[in-house]
Amino acid sequence: MANLNVTFAGVPFKTPVVVASGTFGFGREYGEMFDLNQLGGICVKGLTLHPRLGNPPPRIAETPMGILNSVGLQNPGVDRFIKEEMPFLKTLNTNIIANISGNTVEEYAEMAEKLSDAGVDIIEVNISCPNVKAGGAAFGTSCDAAASVTRAVRRISRVPVMVKLTPNVTDIAEIARAVEDAGADALSLINTLLGMRIDITTRRPVLHNNTGGLSGPAVFPVAVRMVWQVRDAVKIPICGMGGIMTGEDAVEMMLAGADIVSVGTALFQDPLAAIRVTEGIARYLEKMNIENVTEISGKVLLN
Amino acid sequence: MANLNVTFAGVPFKTPVVVASGTFGFGREYGEMFDLNQLGGICVKGLTLHPRLGNPPPRIAETPMGILNSVGLQNPGVDRFIKEEMPFLKTLNTNIIANISGNTVEEYAEMAEKLSDAGVDIIEVNISCPNVKAGGAAFGTSCDAAASVTRAVRRISRVPVMVKLTPNVTDIAEIARAVEDAGADALSLINTLLGMRIDITTRRPVLHNNTGGLSGPAVFPVAVRMVWQVRDAVKIPICGMGGIMTGEDAVEMMLAGADIVSVGTALFQDPLAAIRVTEGIARYLEKMNIENVTEISGKVLLN
Amino acid sequence: MPITTLATVQDTRMLTESVCKMVLFSPELARLAKPGQFVHIKCGGESLLRRPISICDVQEDTLTLVLERKGAGTQYLAERRAGDTLDLLGPLGNGFELPDGKLLLVGGGIGVPPLLYAAKRAKGADAVLGFKTKSAIILEEEFQSACGETAVVTDDGSYRLHGNVTVPLREMLHRGGYAGVLACGPRAMLRAVAEVCAAFKVPCQVSMEERMGCGVGACLVCVCETEKEGERAMSRVCKDGPVFRAEEVCW
Amino acid sequence: MPITTLATVQDTRMLTESVCKMVLFSPELARLAKPGQFVHIKCGGESLLRRPISICDVQEDTLTLVLERKGAGTQYLAERRAGDTLDLLGPLGNGFELPDGKLLLVGGGIGVPPLLYAAKRAKGADAVLGFKTKSAIILEEEFQSACGETAVVTDDGSYRLHGNVTVPLREMLHRGGYAGVLACGPRAMLRAVAEVCAAFKVPCQVSMEERMGCGVGACLVCVCETEKEGERAMSRVCKDGPVFRAEEVCW
Ligand SMILES: Cc1cc2nc3c(=O)[nH]c(=O)nc-3n(C[C@H](O)[C@H](O)[C@H](O)COP(=O)(O)OP(=O)(O)OC[C@H]3O[C@@H](n4cnc5c(N)ncnc54)[C@H](O)[C@@H]3O)c2cc1C
Ligand SMILES: Cc1cc2nc3c(=O)[nH]c(=O)nc-3n(C[C@H](O)[C@H](O)[C@H](O)COP(=O)(O)OP(=O)(O)OC[C@H]3O[C@@H](n4cnc5c(N)ncnc54)[C@H](O)[C@@H]3O)c2cc1C
Ligand SMILES: Cc1cc2nc3c(=O)[nH]c(=O)nc-3n(C[C@H](O)[C@H](O)[C@H](O)COP(=O)(O)O)c2cc1C
Ligand SMILES: Cc1cc2nc3c(=O)[nH]c(=O)nc-3n(C[C@H](O)[C@H](O)[C@H](O)COP(=O)(O)O)c2cc1C
Ligand code: FES
Ligand code: FES
Q1: Confidence (pTM)
Q2: What is the C-alpha separation between A23 and D139, in angstroms, rounded?
């Protein structure tokens, strides 16, 4: 059996497979369907300083091999998360990654302060949510803004800080470098690509929010390319995601440069997708006679 | 029977459906399979000032509901195009759109000069090819560069100038505005999204060029969103493309803001796709009791 | 606790031109399923998302679904034949509460099917079923044998009563004797039913529809705005619903 | 002039564990197809691109294809059964030139099938067929009846001659009497065959493979570098090929 252990931003992961923020809630629901301790980590639903109701429905639309979502960061707020969800999450033997979004740099910092002693293993700084007006992607599309959020969170946080990048930019490597220089311990990418669907009978956008974030297999080749570009640009470790459905996809993402991977949309098709992806990686390593999963990260052979 | 005529940038189109540059060669091959005069227009393979051999193969990879290509602008050069291809194309009763790429602003201008009297109906300025080092996308990702190419071509061209935008940017509306201000008569979008696939057995990228341009249904929701954003930002007409497979898709793109549409990748699945798309649009108009196809452009009802 | 399972299609039949009845062999789901719950079905390799379909009936080892062909997903389902297998995730959702006493079931169109299983499990039930037109009527006989009284209305008056479900609903509530109303159908109908029930002070449960992702309550895409004890919330149709107390829904 | 047509599967059979033979009813294609040409096949709704497969044989109203299960597309094809229909675009490509006189056909692995139709149309042919191992051998009997002499080699010597196709090729060319060599197989084999033929000054045609988009010559994704009268070109495998004169290919 191949060794799936990875140390990522100083945190030991049993497997390189985590579940993506916003697709797994706070873990309870899928916890009824499989043993959460089989996961490398759980990235919880995006948190904000204050509770949010999110956008009105419909919040999802299907696209060719993809989905658009416009949840808009519905969440109970960081305080209730710490009080109501962390006790359960702390009982698990897997890494907990808190995903945070703020309207201002100060909000990000305040959340990082609150979460630092709450028992989470990593803080993921979401500067890439396409579904909220203030904050979110606005921070992710400018090097300066991305760097200042990173700096503020890094200064306060007592756990490793991972910054989540948006694919809706001209040059993702440039943003990655700015975030690395500002002290990020790791990067995650990609968040969703901004998209739109229109119902031609009613002439209305399918999503109440008009636009939404594209995820799923459709974005996979874009995600692989971006992970590869970012791998080339920075030294800090990368959590790669975007359309991973199988162990083969995960291996491809790792060859491109990811140290660990996240599985999101795939869960909607198969609730056990993250486990199947983990098994698929292990099978690949065995077939190729590779002992440690860490040996494949970034090992694409360019033409 | 609904009226499919559209006047686009001053040029009359029999139907709003044209075939996308690079997917239709110079028309001869598909001309063996159907009557080219059924098309609204033919956008020919991207031309450069001098002949180009393009990139080594493999130049195509399949992705979930998409393809990556890295042809790299293989073409005989603008002079041979005018000499060898235009005589045939001029015999057709459909609009001919010449797609041009340059290494410098001067090259774009020189090509526009040569093409202005060659009998083409529109010049499409490609500032968005992801598969070449010099030129191409470099011009399409900066407002200044995009504007200066547009200005140079507009000054010289004696036919309408349509500028083709790349989706690989943070803010496509900003580029669209810059190009409109610089005098473009029309816009076309989207070109391909940069992507990558890796063969996990050989560890090599599937494409010899390592990365390539993503097209096909996978990108459709991104294309619809961008057409909608650009429609909101400029007054000049838009040729919408990216993943259109059916008449319904074309209608959706037009509701988002396209005046005419282009069909590319769909041809690889069905050589008659452009005709089927045209028929599908007509069927929709009849079903909805709409007399002129021009009535639906930009008529999405926002939520 | 939801499970994923492969169920074998035992039988399919078109009830109308576009509505298909499908019997699936799945002992586990048949054992677990409660009225008002649904299954989330994978529709081949071309649709990324599963499709939610209510459980219409349960019999020993089988589940009956009744579904309307609308887009690609339900088209795929309607094309399945005996012997094919389907990948189901379920049973999902809270289902109806079945209080002691006689219930009044109000269904509209493709919202009718889940009420059949409720009728069978209830301690007595009457039904009001509404359809667009005569050719759209489904399951009438099944309700007639499961219920005391079954009123059928059509929008165009092409069969039985003319008009909408609230007419017989009012009459029957007026007569009285119902412990509650369970309703499933288009949103506008549910709202109207809720208003009538409120006027008659009869507890009403409504089964809501929303586009879904995960189906299990994790992704928050399927929400319905609710208000309970003064607190507004975006409740999950797949997990907190699909059945809600009518008075808690923000219409 | 290529056409798109729906062909009905008449018969399928596995020739080895992973190679499938398929007979398709398609009178138009059977009439049009020449040896060395191929068809571009739609592989269900999940694969956007068609898959190129050589025409292995033509008989009255049917086309025979022999294909190896590799990825999703060929897997889909191998799962078709009699009565299913396939969407074909073809016949595509230039095909082999068949000069007057006896030909020597050299095939490797899954490159063997298209040579069968050439053998049948040629004015006399011998064949050299190479396979990895005994269990991978296909179409041996068919070649034996269509050709004068059929030499079979296996990489591992598990059947007939041990080694690679160039060994019998050299011997047979040494004996002489061939108007030309037609070869199809892995690139490395084609190159070796081309070298041997050049040494013997026998004209050699090779059938090349490349990933394809349109299949008809319009998209320029399927190129092979060639040189003709000093001019280098990126020739289209789908339209200018798949068959090229060996000396024109830039190996
Ligand atoms: C809890 C619940 C129970 C249901 N029970 C039944 C039933 O018993 N019988 C029946 O015929 N239908 C039922 N529906 C509606 C059914 O789910 C939709 O008709 C179906 O998802 C449409 O899929 P499609 O691919 O045919 O249509 P498309 O329009 O192509 O679907 C596109 C996307 O929108 C979603 N969608 C479209 N319409 C609806 C809708 N009305 N509700 C939810 N999602 C939708 C689809 O799931 C898919 O993700 C139920 C819906 C819910 C929420
Ligand atoms: C002119 C020509 C004739 C051919 N004739 C035959 C034949 O008679 N029998 C047979 O078994 N195979 C033949 N092949 C190879 C066959 O086309 C590929 O094995 C097949 O396309 C693989 O598809 P897949 O979905 O199974 O594999 P995947 O690897 O999943 O395919 C992914 C993509 O790569 C392309 N691809 C992968 N391998 C090849 C390849 N070797 N050549 C071209 N494209 C490839 C596919 O078409 C698809 O677009 C021929 C190829 C060409 C170019
Ligand atoms: C329904 C849904 C909700 C999401 N919510 C969040 C979120 O709250 N915070 C965040 O950083 N990303 C969020 N994402 C993005 C995912 O974490 C992930 O980056 C993206 O979906 C790409 O991965 P996938 O294709 O595997 O889903 C969400 C995605 C989906 C589909
Ligand atoms: C094989 C191929 C070659 C292309 N070559 C060109 C080109 O030369 N010039 C250009 O402007 N766009 C080129 N494109 C982009 C298309 O014109 C179009 O913008 C894109 O493919 C999106 O549309 P589609 O999804 O309908 O294919 C090419 C696309 C493909 C698939
Ligand atoms: S569908 Fe995911 S929470 Fe309801
Ligand atoms: S596949 Fe398009 S040119 Fe050959």
Answers
A1: 0.97
A2: 52
